[in-house]
Amino acid sequence: QKEVEQNSGPLSVPEGAIASLNCTYSDRVSQSFFWYRQYSGKSPELIMSIYSNGDKEDGRFTAQLNKASQYVSLLIRDSQPSDSATYLCAVNPDYKLSFGAGTTVTVRA
Amino acid sequence: GAVVSQHPSRVICKSGTSVKIECRSLDFQATTMFWYRQFPKQSLMLMATSNEGSKATYEQGVEKDKFLINHASLTLSTLTVTSAHPEDSSFYICSASTSVAGGPSSYNEQFFGPGTRLTVL
Questions:
Q1: Closest CA–CA distance from residue B99 to any residue of chain A (Å)
Q2: Residue A25: which H helix or E strand, with range?
Q3: Residue B61: partners with Cβ closer than 8 Å, 6 or more residues away
Q4: DSSP string, B13-81
C-alpha cells in the first residue's frame, strides 16, 4: 500500500465550479499535511498546510483534515483556468515529506 | 512564503562531465535541505536529505558517489552530478525546510526552488 494516495485524474471542471481533490495516507503518526500545486515544467508551490482536524480556508482554497479517517482534501472554489495544474498531496510522518502521485486538474473555460 | 533559489535553471552538458547545482534559501535559514529529481509525467523522487555541517542521507538506490551533496551553510546546499550520462537527464529540484511557529513541534514546511533542467548529450 502506498503511503499517500490521491484520487486518480485527470479532473476536468468548468470554470467557476468547485474542484474537489482527495488524499488518504497510511501512516497514523503523520502530523502535518500539505497541498502543493505544480504547473507543467515548473517546481511545486506550497498552497496550503494543515495540521488540525477540520477546515482551513485561504482565499479560494479550503483544506479539510480528518485524522481519524486518515484523509485530507482540497477544495478549489470558483475554479479558474489558471488553476489548471497538478496538485500534490504531501504528509510529514517524519522529517521527510511523502508525496502522492498527484491529480491533474483542468479547468474548462 | 519563503524563497528558495536554484542555479542554473537549465544546463546542457556532454556525457562524462560534472555539473554543479546550487540551492539557496534567500530569506531564511534552513537546517535541512532536500534534493529531488522528477522525470516527465512522474512524481517527485527524493534523492537525499542534506543537513548543514553533516553528511547527506541518501535514499535507497541513489548513488552517493555519483550525486555529491554539500551543505556548507544554513543557506546553501549544492548537488554535483559527477560523470553525467544521458540517463541522468532530468529535472532536479531542491527544497528547504523551515519550522512554522504555533504548530506542533514537528511542523516544518518545505519550500521548493524553481528547479534545474539537466540535459546530458
A1: 11
A2: strand A19-25
A3: none
A4: E-TT--EEEEEEESSS--SEEEEEEE-TTS--EEEEEEETTS--EEPTT--TTTEEEEEEETTEEEEEE
Q: Which residues of A touch B115 (CB under 8 A)?
A: 42-43
**B49 CB near a chain A CB, below 8 Å?**
yes
Instruction: Kindly determine whether residue B108 and residue A95, on different chains, have CB atoms separated by under 8 Å.
Output: yes
Task: Name chain A contacts of B44, Cβ cutoff 8 Å.
Answer: 44, 88, 99
What's chain B's average pLDDT? 91
Between CA B94 and CA B36 the distance in angstroms is 6
- Whether residue A76 contacts residue A61, with contact meaning beta carbons closer than 8 Å, is answered with yes
Peptide bond between residue A10 and the one before it cis (omega within 30 degrees of 0): yes
Given a contact cutoff of 8 angstroms between Cβ atoms, the answer to whether A103 and A86 are in contact is yes
DSSP 3-state of A67: coil
Return the ∠ at Cα B98 (arms to B80 and B78), rounded to 5°.
10
User: What pLDDT is attached to residue A95?
Assistant: 80
CB neighbour list of residue A107: distance below 8 Å, 6 or more residues apart: A12, A13, A14, A15, A19, A79, A80, A81, A82, A83, A84
d(C-alpha B119, C-alpha B12), whole Å: 5
Task: Write the CB contacts of A43 (distance below 8 Å, at least 6 apart in sequence).
Answer: B91, B93, B112, B113, B114, B115
- The string of pLDDT tens digits covering residues A13-57 is 999 999 999 999 998 888 899 999 999 999 999 999 998 999 999
